[in-house]
Fold these 2 entries.
Entry 1:
Amino acid sequence: MPLRDLWLGASLLLILVGLASGQGTLAVMGVLLLLAGGAARIWQRLALERVTYQRIFPETRAFVGEKLSFTVRLTNRKPLPLPWLEVRELFPQDVPPQDVRVVAAPTTRSVYVTKSTALSWYERLTWHFELQCQKRGYYRVGPAHISSSDIFGLFPAERQETEVQNIVVFPKTVPVPDIGLPSQRPFGERRGGSRIYQDPLRIAGLRDYEPGDSMRRIDWKATARRGTLQSRVYEPSSTLQMLIAINLTTFEQTWAGYDPILLERMVTMAASLATYANEESHSVGLLANCSFPEADRPIKIAAGRHPQHLPRILEALATIGPFMISSIEDLLQKELHSLPLGTTVVLVTALLPESLLATLARIRAVGHQVIVLSVRDEEPTQVLKGIPILSVGTYMQRFEMEQTYGS
């Protein structure tokens, strides 16, 4: 048993022996030991009281290759000084802190960073960290473990912080127009086309109200001026909606695992398409046959074009892993009847089984445009009437080599 656990018994024994034998020195030593041990115990109990630990992240999202800076603020809000204090923080291995020593942690793909200091009464200490975002993903920083002790170092005090910080590393993107899509605007023109597809954000003019017009069409200012109900006329549009679908299957046999290169190609291409669509003012959505972290539903984001829609899609893509919860053809079949008329479906895939080809043909048959992007190096051999099947594998290889060896 450590000496620190015997201090009370030892001090009482010294006092009793000293008093019984008339040895005042022993009794004094026992009293001093009792006082020192009691003070140390009280110090230990108060050591981490009113000690606060804060992480301050100005930004919690970044792209691969960027850095995230944050600050740790450690404050002792009491008159009792801390001669020694240690903080051990848990970091993801793929987003390690820079310029500090790290050690492997028991948790999978995690590392520890340990820093020690002393805090006087009412002192605040600030540490600055910089995280290198090496790989896309959804990560967690923390929790932190704080240790201290009494002034003699006899009795340790420990506390586990419960607060953690989630950070998202977006996937990298590549220029979409350079991959050989069939036209400069592969998803159609924003203006022109059939009047059946109309863009409510582009007003072409006004006309008299007709029975059956939606109340949203009525221009109340023009109605007040003219004295009769006036309906807005919108410009036609052939590509108001785009759905990016990702088939995460990389091997025909699911028990064979997955190909990490093909998986990353699909995520990168989907992120690039979403960014391109956003820049072209398309309304874009996402569908993938895997689930969000700690959820059991497939990744599905309805089409939209508000300012925060693209970050939401990129955040979902950052979380994509190799574990599928459904086939992409089943998900597309469920979405078929809810897709707005004229939606362009862009499928990013490594495999094209017959069941998926049949689903794509049904989507095309009901009037939607379908484009297939294969991320394999080989040219696809399948042919679908009215559906272009394009290979982007060789194109993606160039960016993979630039990332590995430098441009």
Entry 2:
Amino acid sequence: MSLTPDQAKVIADYTLTDYEHERAPTKRVIGAVPAGQERYAPSAKCMTSLDLAWHLASSELFFLNGVCGGQFSAGESKRPDHIRNAQDVLAWYDENLPPAVARARQLSAEQLAQVIDFFGMMQLPGVVYLTLMVKHSAHHRGQLSSYLRPMGAKVPGIYGPSGDTQ
């Protein structure tokens, strides 16, 4: 896939604005993980609720840093020891994501159109990874929201009211 720099800039502006709107429901879902349920997983093949909340938050920074730096680096996603619950994830998210989005908004059209390798699996313009970030986050936010009721929590509204918010 190739994009002109002007096309990449338009897509990035739209995608980053869309992403900023998506952060609020993501924060509601992460924030709904009840204390004491950090090790909950619906099956042995699933991530725990804390690991999934961390993956959701940290992967957004991973994508933003990869696009801003023009390369992706493995190993950025290990959960730090001080992240012990959903509130810690939210504090980290609020501290780290806004500056990363601001950096992404400052990228030139040429930088956004630059092809970036993703661990040999795909080579795409940087802006395409921003759209992938939004999709990836929506996927894992839905996954985490499906954990909530079995943990005894209420599911917050995402794009409208949920069965628990009506």
